[in-house]
Amino acid sequence: MDGGPRVPEQRRASSSAEAAALRFSVLGPVRAWRAEEPLNTGSPQQRALLAALLLREGRTATAAELIDALWGPEPPSQALAAVRTYASRLRKILDPGVLVSESGGYAVRGLGEGALDVAVAQDLAAEAEKAKSAGDLNQAREVLGRALARWDGEPLAGVPGPYAETQRVRLEELRLQLLESRLDMDLELGCHAEAVSELTALTAAHPLRERLRELLMLALYRSGRQAEALAVYADTRRMLAEELGVDPRSGLRDLQQRILQADPALAEPSSPAAGPPPVAVRPAQLPATVPDFTGRSAFVTELSEVLASAEGRVMAVSALAGIGGVGKTTLAVHVAHQARSAFPDGQLYVDLQGAGPRAAEPETVLGSFLRALGTPDSAVPDSLDDRAALYRSVLDGRRVLVLLDNAKDAAQVRPLLPGTEGCAALVTSRVRMVDLAGAHLVDLDVMSPDEALSLFTKIVGEERVSAEREAALDVVAACGFLPLAIRIAASRLAARRTWTVSVLAAKLADERRRLDELQAGDLAVKATFELGYGQLEPAQARAFRLLGLADGPDISLAAAAAVLDLPVAATEDLLEALVDTSLLESAAPGRYRFHDLVRLYARACAERDEQPPSVGAPPTPSGQWGSEAAMSRLLDFYLATAAGVYAIERPGERVLDHLSRNTYPGLVFTNRDKALDWLFTEASGLLAAVQQAGTAGRLRRAADLLVAAVDLGESGIGARQYVQAASAVISTAQQHGDAYAEGRARLMHSHLLGFFGQFTESDREASVALRLGLAAGDPVVCAQAPNQQGIIALYNMRHDEAEQHLTQALAAFRADRNTPGEASALCNLSRVHLATGRTESAVSLARQGVTIYERDDTGMALRLANGKYALGLALTSAGETQLALETLTDALGMFQDARQQLWHGMTLFRIAELHLVDHSAAQAAACAEQSLAVLHGIGGEWRRANILTTLGRGLHGIGHTDRAKVCWQEALAVFEASGAPEAADVRGLLASAPVG
């Protein structure tokens, strides 16, 4: 018997509503349902009969054919009677008219659309093929995924008979063909990095399937893992020779040669064989040009001519230089819009923030540009040089204009320049880029009096200016003919219909309101800001001054309210008024930011104007005043809110009882996700406030904020800035001789260095922190520092020392009645016992820790995940692999919910180790691959090397020996470079691996 093509009888709609509701499954156990009600399909032989009839898809099967299907050439003597009995029972289960007798045999008829899962899968596969032919790979991939979801384990599971065995092979082959098609589409869509883990597992399960090996080689190569890709070929060639005595097919051999030759065509997905050509991404990122652009005709002509010469030249670069506010960006954007037709492949734009304290990093900008040009995230390299090279390659053959605004210097610009004919770049900067080779330099000066007056008139209105022309000339002259100053002044006047031009001119004529340095450097810009600032109401001016004190890219409404010591509603009114004056920008709903020059000006105003209030002036709600008080309130706000988030993540933790008391409240969250959203959104501003705590009055609270915001470091989000903030507090604390603040900052610095894998430095910092903590009598440092030292000693295999430190930490936690801390130390001690062969006590210690977490109602806390992590390791060593897997899986989910990327990745690594213990090499390799992907860029080289070692073991276990050796060699290089003791084990693995 076979499962041939469908016949019309099987596909027609049923005349019975109940029959239409019948559903059958053969892509897994043979099952039947009426609507959502499962039906009892009887014994294995009875299910075999049902499957045989379903897979004939409406055609009649004779009794002899059914007997042969169920029993083969040697049926029992009562086989015919048994077939009739099974048919009779099935007829009672199914609806009338579904199982029919015909010509001495049986058939299943009258099923509705979608009644049989294999038919649905085949229909979906045909639909996917149509979508692929139409060029819609995303749709085709999604439909194939739905088809593959119809499989639910082994087809015809538990069904006996030769026919069922034949059909199992056929249906499994169908599944693999669909899976290969979907994986092929994955690679076409640039998802090669994500496909590696799945392909590794599939090649282990189907080692002789060369198409899967070919896809794995291509996925590894496109992921930058050329050595592993070639190792897959070597493994495949050796296995085919040993198992079948044949060589790999030509397609696999050709792919190996192309990889060896670094064929450029392999680096990018090829276009689908059929369907329309892909549409090139055409970025159009230029900001809108101002409708009242005025003058600058000579500059417009000059720059336009340079851009027009881009065709036929390697690259046309124009660099505009001038003081702040002279109109560099406005001119560049205007010229770029006029030249758009000469660059039909798109225009790129970026503000490089060169005038601020944190200029944009070229690699970040290149990543944004590459994505705008159609490069998928997975194909964007990590290093600056690689990104720059790919950027130039992507632009090759295109005509694209790049506008690099507000550049810091030539070094920032060079990696961002196109390198091919037909492209051009416009650069604006405060400095003349004489060291930018080949650039056409333009020095932009102030406007002429006529141009300045024309701009002023366009904004204010012809009627008002013509009536007071002399006053208008006085205004633009007082602005130093700077376009930005003129625009701000004119906009203020246009918004106030009761003012005359003479009133504005009189205000500008007062030198007390206009800086003498108007003609010199940056001070020329201050004159224009002084105009806007001078027209502010007192409360608005105070808000402007104080908000400029805070570092960070922007500030939230709640944080601004803390700075100003005002209710949120009143703060919002003030900030929106400042937005109207163009002295502040609305970055997003509820968030505000300064232009970098405006921030500097606001700080100068604070230094000059923030004096104690005069007698009789109303006090602020807290009674505090001035710059120091404002920054103190901001730090209080961040500390109070972060402590609340810490309490949600770590309920019962005594650390909160040892934080500095703050006078300004923070936000209160009842929802864990919202609390974490706040912490991660505010990371830059919060850590900037820590770095700004340069006075003795704020220093200890800054150190406490590092403790409360530790999730920013542990998660990997903001980890680098966290380390910088900790270093800043350490330096300031040393200057002030504050052992308390220095000890806490060094403790957190040690914590983060450990996460980066810098164990020597981490151990040194923890040792100094403990000495300072003992001197200051700080219970937090006295407990957590030896705990950290114990962890580092464990990692370095100094087990006796680790046990001493952790025993000291355990005593300190207990003395402080810090039960979550006690549980942490117990779990860490468990790992020491595990490493020294005391498995039974290791399990006991870990269970004690988990019990404490659960007993103290910390079941939702991050710490419980840490406890389950330790317990999972101990159970693995104790041979309780199923319980260990359940425990580690629980921990994995908790870490994911807490957005703890590092621990998420490390738990996947431990699950991979567990699968090795359980002799599940393919699953071990898959989990190790996932761990590497999650930990990309975080966790440090030591952790990556350990994962590579485990990945190699998994690959070796599934016969991918050459690829395993590549992983071990990479791990060995890391271990040897750091002097890690794990190097010896890896050398042993390499020595014992067979020679290919």
Brief overview:
By secondary structure, the chain is mainly alpha-helical.
What keyword list fits this structure?
about 1000 residues; mainly alpha; about 60% helix; 46 helices; five-stranded parallel β-sheet; about 5% strand; 14 strands
How would you characterize this protein structure?
The protein is mostly helical and 996 residues long. Helix content is 61%, strand content 6%. The strands form 4 sheets. The protein has a 5-stranded parallel sheet with strand order 8-9-10-7-11, sandwiched between helices. A 3-stranded antiparallel sheet has the order 1-2-3. Mean pLDDT is 85; it is low at 2-20, 271-279, 511-525 and 614-624.
How do the helices and strands line up, and which of them pair or pack?
Layout: H1 8-11, H2 17-20, E1 22-25, E2 31-34, E3 37-39, H3 44-55, E4 61-62, H4 63-71, H5 79-93, E5 99-102, E6 105-108, H6 117-133, H7 137-148, H8 162-188, H9 192-205, H10 210-222, H11 226-243, H12 250-260, H13 297-308, E7 316-321, H14 328-338, E8 347-351, H15 362-372, H16 384-395, E9 401-407, H17 410-413, E10 424-429, E11 440-443, H18 449-460, H19 462-467, H20 469-478, H21 483-495, H22 501-509, H23 523-534, H24 538-547, E12 555-556, H25 557-564, H26 568-580, E13 585-588, E14 591-593, H27 596-609, H28 626-649, H29 672-681, H30 683-691, H31 696-708, H32 710-714, H33 719-736, H34 739-755, H35 759-776, H36 779-795, H37 799-815, H38 819-835, H39 839-855, H40 862-877, H41 881-897, H42 901-917, H43 921-934, H44 940-957, H45 961-978, H46 982-992
Parallel strand pairs: 7-10, 7-11, 8-9, 9-10
Antiparallel strand pairs: 1-2, 2-3, 4-6, 5-6, 12-14, 13-14
